[in-house]
Structures are given as structure tokens and as C-alpha cells.
Specification:
The chain is an alpha/beta fold. It has a single domain (12-208), classed as Vaccinia Virus protein VP39 (Rossmann fold, 3-Layer(aba) Sandwich). It has helices at residues 12-17, 21-38, 49-58, 81-87, 100-113, 143-150, 168-175, 179-182; strands at residues 69-73, 92-96, 118-121, 132-138, 154-163, 184-192, 201-208. Helix 5 (100-113) links the parallel strand 2 (92-96) and strand 3 (118-121). Helix 2 runs antiparallel to helix 5 (100-113) and helix 3 (49-58) crosses helix 4 (81-87).
């Protein structure tokens, strides 16, 4: 097998996406087609495209209630925003991406996939003029810097969901000094997708006052 060949679909795809599974498959194919050209994901990511990227992102939707407004900051290839929007079609998602070619691609995906609950905003987080109930981010920056960027666009009483790896605990400790300044109520590390994924997704949930 080609070491860069796209990962085969698993039963988790249908389990996680349900009625939106065909849209998820179309998104997978679009990433295979366009990711390298647009600098979205490198060829070495293809062998784990489903597990490490799409499904890993989609299960974060477990933390999003129907009707919530969600902003995905630094959306890039639409991760985690597009998989989350497919897994939770009853919430409204805004993909925020400053780079023109990537934001144009995201707009194309909204049309191609028929994503009625997704819009794309070409901007940096600090340029956004409205607030959301939930803000998500994946591979944007370390938690202290991320919180400075996204708390201003998060509603009071809202939450920031940051997909993090093994250093999540360390990043939380580094962020505690910002709690009073940013109006942070507390932090917790949540593992999502345990019933579907061999490696559950680790999410740092920051709740605001």
C-alpha cells in the first residue's frame, strides 16, 4: 500500500455522522483532492485522514447542544468546524479563516456539501465583530495565546473548546494567570469519542463567567 494513500473508511463514519455520512465522505474526497495543493494537509496526513482529522474533529460535537452558535477560529481545512457541523446539524457554525485561498475553498465546500448550518468569514479572530456561545480551535496556538484571541468573541457564560494533545495540563497551568483578566470560570480536560475512536479526542474546555 502507498504510504501516502488515503485511509479506508471505518464503521465509525456512519455511527458518528448518521444521515450526514455521505456529506462527510464527500468532504473526505475533497480533502484528498485539494489538501496538498492548498497547503491544507500534507500527503503524510492522508493515511490517517479519517481517524486523526475528520473523526477526531467530529466527536467534539458531543459537547455542542442544539441551537448553539459556534465559531471555528483558524479553520484552515475546515477542521474541526466542518466535521462538527455535520455531526451536529442543529447548531450554527461560522468558520473563521484569514487566508484568502483557504477561506475561498471553505466557501466552495459549504456549497458543494450543502452545509445549511455553516457560513465562512474571512478574518482574523481579533477582527471579528460579534460573539458566539462556543468557540473552537485546533492547532492554532498554545492555550494562553489562544484564549487572549478568542475570549473577546465568546459570549459571557460561553465556552472555548480547544483540541489539545499531551501538553493540555501544562497549557492550563500556564493559562491560570489569565483567569481574572479574561473572566474565566475554570478549565477541564474532556475525552470525547471514546465509544468510536481508538484514540479519543482530548479537549480543553474553558468556561467563562
Amino acid at each position: 500500500m502507498d504510504e501516502f494513500a488515503p485511509e479506508a473508511e471505518t464503521p465509525a463514519v456512519a455511527a458518528i455522522f448518521g444521515a450526514q455520512a455521505d456529506q462527510a465522505r464527500a468532504y473526505f474526497k475533497a480533502l484528498v483532492r485539494d489538501a496538498d495543493l492548498l497547503g491544507l494537509l500534507g500527503p503524510r496526513e492522508m493515511p490517517k485522514l479519517w481517524s486523526r482529522h475528520i473523526l477526531n474533529s467530529a466527536v467534539v460535537a458531543e459537547l455542542v447542544e442544539p441551537g448553539k452558535t459556534v465559531a471555528d477560529v483558524g479553520s484552515g481545512a475546515g477542521l474541526p468546524g466542518i466535521p462538527m457541523a455535520l455531526a451536529q446539524p442543529s447548531a450554527q457554525f461560522t468558520l473563521i479563516e484569514p487566508m484568502e485561498r483557504r477561506s475561498d475553498w471553505l466557501k466552495k465546500m459549504v456549497v458543494e456539501l450543502g452545509l445549511a448550518n455553516v457560513e465562512v468569514l474571512r478574518a482574523r479572530a481579533e477582527e471579528v465583530g460579534e460573539a458566539y456561545e462556543i468557540v473552537t480551535a485546533r492547532a492554532v496556538s498554545a492555550l494562553p495565546k489562544l484564549l487572549r484571541l478568542v475570549v473577546p468573541i465568546t459570549h459571557a457564560g460561553g465556552q472555548v473548546l480547544a483540541l489539545k494533545g499531551s501538553k493540555a495540563g501544562e497549557e492550563i497551568e500556564e493559562s491560570r494567570k489569565l483567569m481574572k483578566k479574561l473572566g474565566i470560570q475554570g478549565f477541564e480536560i474532556i475525552q470525547v469519542g471514546k465509544e468510536f475512536l481508538a484514540e479519543p479526542t482530548s479537549v480543553v474546555r474553558t468556561k467563562l463567567v
